[in-house]
Amino acid sequence: MAAHQHESRFPAMPRAMLVMHLLRGEVDAPWTVVQPPTFLTLTNEPVVYTHAAGITALGLIVRPGAAACLLGPAGGAVTNHAMAWSDVAGARESERLAEELGRLDNEGVCLRALTSSFERTMQGVAADRWHQAEQLCETVGRLGAQAGATLGIGRRQLERRCRELLGISPKRFERLERFHRALTAVVMQDAPSLAEESLNAGYCDQSHLALDARELGGASVLQMKSQATPESAWWALSTPRAMQAARDHLPP
């Protein structure tokens, strides 16, 4: 983030994030961890984060099923919340990560340390619980309130499981997933057709996407696309294209 940036904007996301902020005064100076890693839960509304300028933000996108498993039966339903990583992974793991970060000198190594901490914490999650959570999220993300038939459970049981696991209804989670698909597709293209991408994502028409953009994004789709650059407050939306460009340059 450039020195003049003081906020980051995110649309509602059917994902969690594990993030950390780094700072250094000079190009060759060691990195300083601005604050301990933070776990940001699933959000069902637009979010604006204010921060000190001139920072480097690193993070992992965490699938909703994995996030719910990490937070446990009671905490999985937490939404729109920022938690200290120590509250999720435990004090011992948080201290181990802090010790590792204290001797690292570049952002790539810092990101690998963050990834390792996440992987170690996930090792404490039972495989069957993770599989069931992932299956529920994937099916509800496609079918919403109609997912019960595919999962072999009734409508009321589906509603209860989603609220216990994700903190929102099946219909709301499906809506978040649909908007996320549409917005990502639009951002990835130079000259997207909003009407076509609306239908591809599962909307009845473009006007329904426009309504979701206002409620779940806080701006129009075209406004978010135009500001999906590393230099804007919507910098996070530029990540899919950056990742695709990186993959295109990898050897076969």
Task: Give a short overview.
The protein is built from twelve helices and six strands.
List descriptors.
252 residues; alpha+beta; Arc Repressor Mutant, subunit A; 2 domains; four-stranded antiparallel sheet; 6 strands; globular
List the SSEs and their pairings.
Elements: E1 7-10, E2 16-23, E3 32-40, E4 47-50, E5 56-62, H1 64-75, E6 82-84, H2 85-89, H3 91-101, H4 107-122, H5 127-143, H6 147-151, H7 155-165, H8 170-187, H9 194-201, H10 206-217, H11 221-226, H12 239-248
Antiparallel strand pairs: 1-4, 2-3, 2-5, 3-6
CATH T-level topology of the largest domain: Arc Repressor Mutant, subunit A
Helix tally equals: 12
CATH architecture of the largest domain: Orthogonal Bundle
The coarse overall form would be: globular
User: Helical residue percent?
Assistant: 40-55%
Order of helices and strands: EEEEEHEHHHHHHHHHHH
The SS-based structural class is alpha+beta
- The overall strand count is 6
- Calculate Rg over CA atoms: 19 Å
Main sheet strand line-up: 5-2-3-6
**Percent of sequence in beta strands:** 5-15%
Q: What characterizes the major β-sheet? A: 4 strands, antiparallel
Number of domains: 2
What is the CATH first-level class name of the largest domain? Mainly Alpha
Poorly predicted ranges (pLDDT <50, ≥5 residues)? Answer: none
User: What do the pLDDT scores average to?
Assistant: 89
The CATH superfamily of the largest domain appears as: Homeodomain-like
N/C terminus separation: 32 Å
